[in-house]
Write a structure and sequence with these properties.
By secondary structure, the protein is mostly helical. It is built from seven helices and no strands. The radius of gyration is 17 Å and the shape is globular.
Amino acid sequence: AASDVYKRQDNSFEINKSLDFTEKGKALLNEKDYQRAIKLFTQAIKANPKNLEATFYKGVAELDNQNPYAAAQNFNKILEEAPNFKMPIYLLLSIAYNRLNNTEMALKILTDALIRQPKYIEGYMGRAQIFF
C-alpha cells in the first residue's frame, strides 16, 4: 500500500513536470523558436504521454517549422485518443495534408469535422481555400 502512495506521488510529479515543459514550450512557440519548443513538447509528452495539449502544440510547432508530416502524426495521435479535441485540430491537420500535396485527405478531414460540428465556420473556409 505504501508503494501505491509513492507511485501516485511520482506520477503527480511527472504530470506537473509535463505541464511545466508544455508552458515553456508554448512560450518558445510564441517566440517562433520552433526547434526548442519541439524539444520541450517532446519532454512534456515523455513525462506524461497522456498530455494531449503538449502533443497538439508539438504538432503546431512542427507545422510552423515546415514539417507537415510530423505535424500530421501528432494531430492524428490526438484524434485517435480524443476525437472531440479542440476543433482547430481538424483545420491544422488539413493544412498539414495539403502541404503534403494530399488534397483528398485534407478535404476528408474537414468534411469529417463539419459532420461532427456543422457550425464550424473555419472548416468551410478551409475547404474553400484548398480549391484556391
